[in-house]
Amino acid sequence: xxVVEIEIRANVAVIQVDNPPVNAISSQIRSGLVEAIExxxxxxxxxxxxxxxxxxxxxxxxxxxxxxxxxxPPHLPEVTAAIEASHKPVTAVIHGQxxxxxxxxxxxxxxxxxxxxxxxxxxxxxxxxxxxAGGTQRLPRLLGAEAALSMIVSGDPVSAEKxxxxxxxxxxxxxxxxxxxxxxxxxxxxxxxxxxxxxTSHRRLSLRSATAPNAxxxxxxxxxxxxxxRGVDAPQACIDAIEAATSLPxxxxxxRERELFxxxxxxxxxxxxxxxxxxxxxxxxxxxxxxxxxRPINCVAIIGAGTMGTGIAMSFAxxxxxxxxxxxxxxxxxxxxxxxxSQYAAxxxxxxxxxxxxxxxxxxxxxxxDYAQLARIDxxxxxxxxxxxxxxxxxxxxxxxxxxxxxxxxxxxxxxxNQIAAVTSRPQQVLGLHFFSxxxxxxxxxxxxxxxxxxxxxxxxLQQLKRLGKVSVTAGVCHGFIGNRMYQSxxxxxxxxxxEGAKPSQIDNALYQFGMAMGPLAVADLSGLxxxxxxxxxxxxxxxxxxxxxxxxxxxxxxxxxxxxGAGFYRYDASSTxxxxxxxxxxxxxxxxxxxxxxxxxxxxEEIVQRCMLALINEAGHILDEGIAASAADxxxxxxxxxxxxxxxxxxxxxxxxxxxxxxxxxxxELARTQGPRWWNASxxxxxxxQKNSW
Length: 695
Ligand code: 3HC
Ligand code: NAI
Prior knowledge:
Layout: E1 4-9, E2 12-17, H1 27-42, E3 48-53, H2 76-85, E4 90-94, E5 97-99, H3 101-108, E6 111-115, E7 119-121, H4 135-143, H5 145-154, E8 158-159, H6 160-166, E9 171-173, H7 180-193, H8 217-228, H9 233-247, H10 250-265, H11 268-285, E10 300-303, H12 307-318, E11 323-326, H13 330-349, H14 355-363, E12 365-368, E13 379-382, H15 388-401, E14 407-410, H16 417-421, E15 430-435, E16 444-449, H17 455-467, E17 471-476, H18 483-500, H19 504-514, H20 520-527, H21 529-537, H22 550-557, H23 583-595, H24 605-625, H25 632-642, H26 652-659, H27 661-675, H28 684-692
Parallel strand pairs: 2-3, 3-4, 4-6, 5-7, 6-9, 10-11, 10-13, 11-12, 13-14, 14-15, 16-17
Antiparallel strand pairs: 1-2, 7-8, 15-16
The structure holds 3-hydroxybutanoyl-coenzyme A and 1,4-dihydronicotinamide adenine dinucleotide (NAI).
């Protein structure tokens, strides 16, 4: 069938769209819809139409892949204008998702009905865009400015049930039989047959006026989003466009929307966000595990009920999967179970789930201190102390007590998973699952394939993580895998910058302004400086730049371990404010610089950001050279989902593309010249990328 077809049912024209998998609105669909409207206008046998989609969903938006190509007419605003201008009322019949341009088409229709359970939204802002086909002008005319702000600026979809309540849709088809799509079709024909044709022109949203909201509403939203999404353009442009809807006639509002849309469409921010959208989907497909059949995972066990173990347990329970939580002693177990209970209580308090749901989830987590309880478990995730011997002892126990086909995973941050697998009789079933803290909130998981891990084990956990709603990135074994290995290079540069004269607050502010969720020294204080200290003690000294961590080490040795001890790079007492330099630390930095013969100088924000980013990019290049990560896009996912890297910059590798890969190569070569080649040796991947101008 063509992507758009018309079937005549008595006096009703049925316009059907078919563009799998999500009916993205391609240029063919746009021209097909305009032609369909023209045909219906000319056909005297029909006096009304329904617009319905085949497959799993209504139209999920403009075809994003076309944004990088020369735009082909008709443009989407022309399509929505043509639909709305039709003299015969068109009813949008929604199932699955009606998103972005898909909802804008529905808003241009004269009526909208939906199948129960569908979702409607304008998520363009999440791709660094705004609804560019009349959505910012029609929605405020239908629901008012405040409701439009809430949907368009957040980008979050609403349920069909909520849409009926608000007036976004005019009818809801309940799920009653085993064939809901057939029911929806019958419901739609019946709905269309009962329309009062004399109302058609009144149903055109462009003819309605949008009421101006209370003074100050737009400024409140601007302020909120300046804080919530620092430096991100799209939310602000969405607010501007909605303000135009309530202050200008429709045609002028549409012109303003178009102007704002075009300014965002080619922007670096939008490209970065689109890059992440496709990277997430590619990561799900390109796992490097071929077609290995996944085994079902119906129950899991977590070893260690500390910070990570409790968070991981909650991630599984939240997806309805029973968890056995094993601790070394009953007191530690009780503390862990209490932590879980209080986290669920906080979730209820924040309105994220009901008391009953929280209770059900909590009951799915059962504590034990007895390995015999693990005999039937499908997947075990160890999250005990970061010490090889301790983990090896745990894995020996697991190997003894778990069924032969159970998968055994470790949440280690740095340790060699091959050495952990080696103590078991089933190294093919041992792998790394590196969750991020807090594990029940953070979406990223690095899935580490050790030398002997089987594809079946990988495929089984990847499928399971998808069920949990996680973003999985596969990685190979090395010290720190993808994320922590790069983070160490970033911290190295931070340490060297301090020795060379940058103050801690200056570094933190520079990187915070760049868009990082927190400055690196505030992060170090929060996680505890002793963790890195202990990790470095277990490392061969040739593996890291010792000079760069002298300040960190000296702080730990004087009992400044970060927030938990009341002081680290900053002080955390009543008299100090956030990110305020402590004279004692500045003095310590000076002393170490003198000891090391480093002459201090004034360093500007640009140099701080550039060196820290180049350190990440160069290490990432080596990670690609070694095959630890499968692609540059995977590395970006790790940084944006696990390390607070600003999503509107798309990750370090996308940033390098945006800066110009040849330019980045040149800057790294210059740093190799001035700082020495030990840590600034450009990777082969970067050299190749600079040649072909893409990763
Ligand atoms: N354009 C192009 N391809 C799209 C797409 C889009 N808008 N939406 C989804 N796809 C592709 C995905 O890349 C994926 O491709 P793959 O199979 O080759 O990897 C495939 O469709 C299936 O997508 P998902 O794996 O994401 O399927 P799910 O069922 O998990 O989710 C969805 C479906 C909720 C529709 C989700 O894909 C989604 O959120 N899509 C984006 C929606 C969106 O942002 N729409 C706005 C677009 S911008 C716009 O409309 C501008 C207008 O205002 C002018
Ligand atoms: P934690 O110290 O909070 O918890 C560890 C728990 O393991 C404690 O409750 C302890 O009683 C228990 N335990 C110790 N030995 C045990 C044994 N033999 N059997 C059963 N339980 C035992 O540590 P945290 O922070 O949860 O870290 C756990 C692991 O996760 C480490 O490998 C760490 O490197 C890794 N990790 C930590 C992250 C973090 O941000 N905290 C992030 C990602 C990984």
